[in-house]
Amino acid sequence: MSDVLLRDATETDFPRILALNDAEVQHTSAMDAARLQWLHERAGYHRVACVDGEVAAFLLAFRDGADYPNPNFDWFAARYPRFLYVDRVVVDAAFNGRGLGSQLYRDVFEHARAQGAAVVTCEFNLVPPNEASARFHARWGFAEVGRQWLDGGKKQVSLQAAPVPG
User: Fold this and answer.
1) I need a surface site. Which of 49, 101, 160, 162 has the fewest CB within 10 A?
2) How many CB atoms lie within 10 A of CB 96?
3) 124 contacts: CB under 8 Å, gap ≥ 6
């Protein structure tokens, strides 16, 4: 089994992060280099999982109070005073089944606890469906707390929350 290293994302990782995001854009949202830089500067958590020195996954999240105008983040901000919002998590398909998403989620929950967040929040697509994300988040104790339509009715998301263990 290859060694996995979790570390903070750096600007040198941006080309690989963009490529990973592009490969899963139907489940995330489009992101160019300028957008990634902007998100990175505001993120409360932006880490990568490296396998044998190669970035194989990343997770980008925002703390309550972040300067992040986004309809999903705004939905959670209106309901939770202390939260960490997972904006996107992407694992390279070539590395599926190696537990990289779970390692990042273990780490993000530890980060949320250290920061005093009561819940970790996220969303995944219902339309078009993202069944893999639904199954993954259920295993992490996420439950649906709402739904909303986005992109002029082209996409519906399930808004999810999971308590941060004490």
Assistant:
1) 162
2) 13
3) 27, 130, 133, 134, 137, 157, 158, 160
Give how far Cα 55 sits from Cα of 8, 9, 63, 92, 162, Å.
Answer: 11, 9, 24, 9, 27
Distance (Å, rounded) from C-alpha 40 to C-alpha 61? Answer: 9
Compute the Cα dihedral for 91, 76, 14, 19 and give only its sign. Answer: positive
pTM value is 0.95
Mark residue 102 as left, alpha or beta (left: phi above 0; alpha: psi -120 to 50; beta: remaining): alpha
Detail the DSSP E strand segments found in 1-151: 4-8, 45-51, 54-63, 83-91, 119-127, 143-150
| CB-based burial, 114-127: b 16+ in 10 Å, e otherwise | eeebbbbbbbbbbe
Residue 128: asked if its preceding bond is cis (omega within 30°), the reply is: yes
Q: Rounded to whole angstroms, how far apart are CA atoms 39 and 147?
A: 24
- Residue-wise pLDDT tens digits, 105-151: 999 999 999 999 999 999 999 999 999 999 999 999 999 999 999 99
CB 58 within 8 Å of CB 90: yes
* Sequence-distant (≥ 6) Cβ neighbours of residue 137 within 8 angstroms: 122, 124, 160, 162
The CA angle 151-25-42, to the nearest 5 degrees, is 80
Residue with tokens 């996220």: 122
